[in-house]
Amino acid sequence: MNYSTVWQKACTQITQVIPRHCLFCLEKTHNHLELCNPCIAALSLNKDCCHRCASPLETSLKQSISLCGNCLSHNYYYDRVYSPLLYAEEMRYLIKKLKYQKKIHYASLLSQLFIQKSHHLKNFYLPQAILPVPMHTKRLRQRGFNQALELGRFFASHYQLPLNYSHLIRIRHTNLQAGMNAKERQKNVQQAFSLKHALPYEHVALIDDVMTTGSTVNEAAKVLKQNGVKQVDVWIIARAGLKI
Ligand SMILES: [Zn+2]
Ligand SMILES: [Zn+2]
């Protein structure tokens, strides 16, 4: 059985409505997810955020402005970030389980949380293709999978969009960014991406699990824009600020 067949079988099992217990409260979920509806409803929404980079805005500012200070003073290569949930305690738990404890099936739950909560997003338009942020082969060997690709598989399947993970590649192994400040992150990912073949799309969505400063997706978007892609959206499961 090849990888694709295994994945399709896993998807079928995941989407079947079978009795499940909520990962947080342990009650029966009464849905096909691993979280019950009250626990899903209690997740922290990223409602008051920058209209460009989805960075959570300070409480005192959110009524009066639509862009954060960074977006007012910088030009980013990506067009817009969509991230309906905050990287608060619950999302941090789920994403860390996916990435560091190899709970690959959590990619289904996380992508479905994005899909459910995306109804809160304004001006959310579908792209022509889904592009997971690529991982360098060295990191891929260490981790065994690319969480962005696993998320992308579910998005592509749900929205019936092509999944492209072969054109945009990571050509430089970069250090893990946790603990770095904004400038260090920016330097860390410089020249990290390349386009192997021209993309036949004008509008794509880059997929990643968490965004903090956005240095990584901006560097990937730069390569896409320099190679003819006109609109680069970014879909992020949970949005962090540098303070979190
Ligand atoms: Zn629950
Ligand atoms: Zn912003």
Low-confidence stretches: none
Query: What is the rounded distance between the termini?
Result: 42 Å
Which ligands accompany this protein?
zinc ion
* CATH class category: Alpha Beta
Structural class: alpha/beta
User: In what range is the share of β-strand residues?
Assistant: 5-15%
Q: In one word, what is the shape? A: globular
Helix content: 25-40%
CATH topology: Rossmann fold
Number of domains: 1
Question: If you had to describe this structure to a student in words, what would you say it looks like?
Answer:
The chain is an alpha/beta fold and 244 residues long. The protein has a single domain (45-58, 68-239), classed as Rossmann fold, CATH 3.40.50. The protein is built from 9 helices and 7 strands; from the N terminus they run αααββααβααβαββαβ. It has helices at 3-15, 37-41, 69-73, 89-100, 106-117, 137-143, 147-159, 182-188, 215-226; strands at 80-82, 85-86, 129-132, 168-170, 193-195, 203-211, 231-239. The strands form 2 sheets. Strands 1, 2, 3, 6 and 7 form a 5-stranded parallel sheet that branches. Helix 5 packs across helix 7 (147-159). The longest helix has 13 residues, at 3-15. It is globular and about 50 Å long. It starts with a helix and ends in a 5-residue tail after the last strand. The mean pLDDT is 89. Bound molecules: zinc ion (ZN) (2 copies). One zinc ion binds at residues 22, 24-25, 27, 35-36, 38-39. One zinc ion is lined by residues 22, 24-25, 27, 35-36, 38-39.
